[in-house]
Amino acid sequence: MSLRAAVLLLSTFALSVVLAACSHDAAPPAAAPQPERKAAVQATADHDEHSYAEPQKVRITALALDLGVDFAQKQLAGTATYTLDWKDPKATTLALDTRDLAIAKVEGADASGQWTPLQYALAPRDAILGSRLDIQAPRRNASVRVTYRTSPDASGLQWLEPSMTEGKRQPFMFSQSEAIHARSWVPLQDTPGVRFAYTAHVAAPKDAMVLMSASNDAADANGNAPRTGDYRFTMKEPIPSYLLAIAAGDLVFQPTGRRSGVWAEPAMVGKAAKEFEDTEKMIEVAESLYGPYRWGRYDLLVLPPSFPFGGMENPRMTFATPTVIVGDKSLVSLVAHELAHSWSGNLVTNASWKNIWLNEGFTTYVQGRITEALYGAELADMERQIDQQELAKEIADGEIAPADQVLALPALTGRDPDEALSDIAYTKGAWFLRFLEQRVGREVFDPFLRGWFDDHAFQSATTAEFVDYLKSHLLAKHPNAVSDAELDAWLHQPGIPAFAERARSRGFATVDSARIAWLGNGQLPPPAITSAWTTQEWVHFLEGLDETSKPAQLAQLDAAYHFSGTPNGELAQRWYPLAVRAGYHAGDAQMAEFLQRVGRRKLIMPTYEALVKTPEGLAFAKDVFAKAKPGYHPITTASVAAAIAKAEKPAQPAAAKSL
């Protein structure tokens, strides 16, 4: 991810103008009650190598934000007020995580509510972690308030000009806090091991609708809220910092169910609501398996195409890419995935980023169960097989180092936590849970998994804690189901265990036969077959083509099925790299348009990575990137820039062998 240059300081006058609309006396919310944790487990959760925070000494239990949105300056400015629980009676320092924030002042409130200045020190910037903010609170203040402003280049915020939006009328701003980008727009204990409730007051231009990962205090029963320029939010359930989210722009609402709906730009909201009309059914399926949905509403915010991810599971307000809206619901498993996070991730959270599979592996497993219940086992098996084959290829091609192929990562010291967000966490993690389900049966595994969510609700957990729970609540009752060696192979050994059962889709057999026949005799499968193919079947067809494809073969496919210019990003991300490797250039203009229009990393990075492997392709990639960069999210910009820089780096001579 992009970790950028030092803070761009604005004048004190500019800051005062933005802060004028913001009250400095907002009271933090009362923290929701949290279950007591075992001391050993809590101590483990307290050590996060990607945070300067020392929650074993003092812990934030509630946050109150009072911010102004300034589109012209590309800046949030205001105050963050913390309610603190001092754990160590000798501690006098509150350590917070920041990145490129300009700190104006820090104050503390004593028991009487009197605010007084506090001494603070902002450390030099670390390339990964940002800057440690140490606040001296000699009276061990119950509340501390920081007045600050963000950098226009904050890694967790993207500011879009009107021309970069769907409607091209108003500017747009949205956040992406995972993994450690929340610290770029709020000074925090930025670790998933600390959870807090929060309130927020946000002042913005009256034509901008502001949304957050919380309830809008002015919303009606359907979730709709008026544009006033003055917004207030409440999140009473405790969340980790990476689930803090904000967005502002030309947004309107359309309901999809009694507790669900879609926010989007006016030109997109109708299409999005139609595509996501099964959201309420998904909630009901998940509840039937894993217990009640505990977050009130579940709304989706459809962002501009520059959003770097498929979706972000911010509680009450999933942020989603428009690239999954293709008109046939074939990609709505993304909604199932983000909804599943309401149990795995949001409700029970990985205590640090080396435990990320507890979020993403569990969520991918639950996603498959929701998809299967609503759309059938065949579609779920197709998606599992695609995921598993892609992971197997990444491992075989050496794209994932052996040390990173284990679920129970021992550490990520000195590394960006985004490096843990690989298909190991998602696919191998889900595969492991599927393995457990197969060994004991769903009638046993479903209650076990629900028990895990219930027993650890609103807590952060480690891999070791899950293994202990697994052994005591499942394997002890079924001692012959899984051996210690098998458990070790899944958790601590690289690769996929040889005994793992591979997903197999019956429908893919027809796709394989059609591809093999075409490669052998040049006869494309008839429309009577392909007209009924889903996105997943076309993905499987394309993934079966290798680097020996000839330009004439791709031209034949393109003429028949119009892959160049396809609005389906899942097909585009596979078609364009094939075209690049084969030297098929008829679709170059459409490929360039796709790379400039879409900022979702999963969809565009395969094409950039294929392009930079040849001098001609590298030149093409650099030209496209120069045009696309203004509309990319900082995270995407960093990924593309890194791929280009790696390709431009001169080959290093081999080290001389010692004699």
Give a verbal description of the structure.
The chain has 659 residues and is an alpha+beta fold. Among the domains are: 12-151 and 178-245, Immunoglobulin-like (Sandwich), CATH 2.60.40; 348-492, Neutral Protease Domain 2 (Neutral Protease, domain 2, Orthogonal Bundle), CATH 1.10.390; 545-648, Serine Threonine Protein Phosphatase 5, Tetratricopeptide repeat (Alpha Horseshoe). It has 20 helices and 22 strands. Helix 18 packs parallel to helix 20 (634-648).
Quick tags:
659 residues, alpha+beta, Neutral Protease, domain 2, Serine Threonine Protein Phosphatase 5, Tetratricopeptide repeat, eight-stranded mixed beta sheet, 37% helix, 19% strand, globular, disordered N terminus, disordered C terminus
Spatial separation of the terminal alpha carbons: 41 Å
Proportion of residues in extended strands? 15-25%
CATH-wise, what's the superfamily of the domain at 12-151 and 178-245? tricorn interacting facor f3 domain
Radius of gyration: 25 Å
Low-confidence stretches: 1-46, 652-659
Helix content: 25-40%
